Amino acid sequence: xxxxxxxxxxxxxxxxxxxxxxxxxxxxxxxxxxxxxxxxxxxxxxxxxxxxxxxxxxxxxxxxxxxxxxxxxxxxxxxxxxxxxxxxxxxxxxxxxxxxxxxxxxxxxxxxxxxxxxxxxxxxxxxxxxxxxxxxxxxxxxxxxxxxxxxxxxxxxxxxxxxxxxxxxxxxxxxxxxxxxxxxxxxxxxxxxxxxxxxxxxxxxxxxxxxxxxxxxxxxxxxxxxxxxxxxxxxxxxxxxxxxxxxxxxxxxxxxxxxxxxxxxxxxxxxxxxxxxxxxxxxxxxxxxxxxxxxxxxxxxxxxxxxxxxxxxxxxxxxxxxxxxxxxxxxxxxxxxxxxxxxxxxxxxxxxxxxxxxxxxxxxxxxxxxxxxxxxxxxxxxxxxxxxxxxxxxxxxxxxxxxxxxxxxxxxxxxxxxxxxxxxxxxxxxxxxxxxxxxxxxxxxxxxxxxxxxxxxxxxxxxxxxxxx
Length: 469
Fold this sequence. Notes:
This protein has 4 helices and 29 strands. The protein has helices at residues 8-25, 126-129, 446-454, 458-468; strands spanning 60-70, 77-87, 92-94, 97-98, 106-114, 119-125, 133-135, 141-144, 147-152, 155-162, 165-173, 185-187, 193-210, 213-228, 237-244, 249-257, 268-273, 278-280, 287-295, 302-311, 314-320, 326-329, 332-345, 348-359, 370-372, 385-392, 403-406, 409-414, 425-431. A hairpin with a 6-residue loop joins strand 1 and strand 2 (77-87).
């Protein structure tokens, strides 16, 4: 049945929870510990130095890698996509039964290796390898059977394999990470907040063993880690585009989809440089249109394979390198792989290798049996202070008692007098009330952005970033 799906993470949760419930009927209940979950607070922030570790109070969490590699001797290209997903099932149900009876947490992992003319995929879930998935130590060292993703000092290690295939990679950051949203805090929809860290510039080296042949590889990669509330019933998927504009800057478009597969609030677009400095684009001006599709016989999904991205200075056509870039793990699927982006951005020609990831082309079987509740806000009496945090605004620092009127309610922010904080900075205390969303950041001045991109003076780019802080 060809229906647009709820997001991939919801499908992953379905895979794991249904499998774990099945395991419980067989008496495989060992290790299904019950953990308390907490919502990501509205003033939370991510920290690249400390937040690679697992977060036991996060409902959903994933670590994601992709890499564009080649054999140094032959120049033969090879593309990698891998994701490790953890779902903590305290608030999940399957057919009305608590999912944690069967397993908590549950794990899923996916990998795809793609050459010019071949594709190899593999996946793991808690069943049948349960309870093999586990964290080791206090940092990130996740071992799922023989698969592993771990930080060893400043290097990310990725090892996956099945049968005659084996992939061993080491990824080292080059430059600084990016924290999307407000210091890594992102709200997909009201009540669906999560934290997010990523690095667009990873130097990658390693090997791919394909049967008797071993290929030594090198190239560039990308890493991201997200945790919190990553699912909302209003969302039916997303389309994600990541591409280098030049040697120093990356363009990212994260396009969230509703049941009509249209862009919805929570979508984002930005440019970031190698120092992790980010300029947000006015996403309300963007339009992402599918131009062509490919039908998967395996899952029944209809995946877009070509797109037109327009608005906010963008005039781009993005085309997948090949139609079949689906990664399937029963009963969910994700489409991820390399693409080619051509066109212009702010009047500058773009011809770049891009990465595309999308979900929403496939309705997992028995998806209707699955439900999940939000962990809810952190407990606080009405009118009491929840937390204090500093953030930057384009306007002068706010005076005490500033009120922001939001879509679903009114929130009061208490701030010191402008003289108490640096110019352009505001320190606020969030008071509990009907809504706990942060005010949106001021949009970038597009004319200033064009001027900074066209300039050969690095100081112009620095000045633009200083103005948007």
